[in-house]
Amino acid sequence: MSLLQVRDLKVHFPIKAGNLFTRQHGSVQAVDGVDLDVAAGTTFGLVGESGCGKSTLARAIMRLVEPTAGSVALDGQDLLGLSERRLRPMRRDFQMVFQDPMASLDPRQNVESLLTEPLRAHKIPGGPVEHARRIRELLEVVGLPATALERYPHEFSGGQRQRIGIARALVLSPKLIVADEPVSALDVSVQAQVINLLKELQERFSLTYLVIAHDLAVVRHISDTVAVMYLGSIIEQAPADQLYRSPTHPYTKALMGAVPVPDPAVEVGRNRILLQGDLPSPANPPAGCRFHTRCPWRQASRCAEERPALRTLTGGHQVACHYAEDIAAGRIQPSTTAAPRSTATVSQHEPAELLDSRRSPGGR
Ligand SMILES: Nc1ncnc2c1ncn2[C@@H]1O[C@H](COP(=O)(O)OP(=O)(O)OP(=O)(O)O)[C@@H](O)[C@H]1O
Ligand SMILES: [Mg+2]
């Protein structure tokens, strides 16, 4: 059984007109029907562009925002049905690592206090001596010196601060860690160190992760399974190797195409296709397939009318596209083929979101 099981989760934020007779005028469908399963000891990577609902999904799982519908179970225990009082002691089992540790760590507390506070709040047995031993051990585990205990968050670099954030998430020995963009505020050189640290900690403590990023490259090496989100729903999910080897949904192909290839010869020779239009508003998502307004493979009139379900193709590879097999086999062609990027494809008028038409763009 999965450690984390999410079913048909929806988070719709009401939009209200601001006058005396305030009424609801529709809703922002930030998360709209997400299923996911994270097996114990594994990492589930969730990617998608800004505004697609990743943080809202994470916050709904953590019960930091109340879902509109659906269910979330941790180790078989339903989390959404619990009162806040019943939920509080369970919170030690699921902890979060945030994008910006400066914002999530109280600047007035030193590291010792930041790490001891959760132990006291959850009345973890052992008292001050045992707590002190535990946090010293934890500091070493996340690669910080014991002298860090007396210091305050602003005295550390971004990477060190994220190590403190990770230590704070770990101090209660949680079953699940949800990391929302854990490295996107960090320099590229530090990102890999923090990702490697998460990986080491997982092996050492048999942790289970849900890792969120807008960049496919970030979750690639840490994830067992990767899911791609678009406008509130998962549109493709597969074992990580498979997703990077053969991205199948047109949107995933677009995201892969947006990952720059370090080799200029490859970059110039890439045959790209423009991803049409802007990301639609989650307050007014397109009917039918939510991606059809931007999809170069869209077919009249099914894509505009019928919302594709997430269905299994092979070996755990799930795709929400009516024409996934036809696209993969080249039986239907994209509508617009643009020149390589080195020419005028990326103009001031076009977003730099380009669709890579290579069959297997994952190889880098
Ligand atoms: N409290 C809220 N009230 C109303 N709308 C909200 C609220 N929180 C988020 N939204 C909207 O829900 C959508 C999803 O937002 P969310 O922050 O989950 O996206 P995201 O994928 O995490 O984006 P990013 O990559 O920028 O962090 C957005 O359109 C956002 O404006
Ligand atoms: Mg976010």
UniProtKB/TrEMBL annotation:
Biased composition (Low complexity): 336-345
Annotated PROSITE patterns: ABC_TRANSPORTER_1, ABC_TRANSPORTER_2
GO biological process: peptide transport; transmembrane transport
SUPFAM superfamilies: P-loop containing nucleoside triphosphate hydrolases (SSF52540)
Keyword line: ATP-binding, Nucleotide-binding, Transport
Top-level taxonomic group: Bacteria
Coiled-coil region: none
Annotated signal sequence range: none
Any one Gene Ontology molecular-function term assigned to this protein's record: ATP hydrolysis activity
Similarity section: Belongs to the ABC transporter superfamily.
Organism encoding this protein: Micromonospora craterilacus
Region of interest called Disordered, as start-end residue ranges on this chain: 336-364
Comp. bias intervals (Basic and acidic residues): 350-364
Designated name of the protein: Dipeptide/oligopeptide/nickel ABC transporter ATP-binding protein
InterPro entries for this protein: AAA+_ATPase (IPR003593), ABC_transp_ATP-bind (IPR050319), ABC_transporter-like_ATP-bd (IPR003439), ABC_transporter-like_CS (IPR017871), Oligopep_ABC_C (IPR013563), P-loop_NTPase (IPR027417)
NCBIfam families in the record: oligo_HPY
Domain ABC transporter per the UniProt entry, residue ranges: 15-256
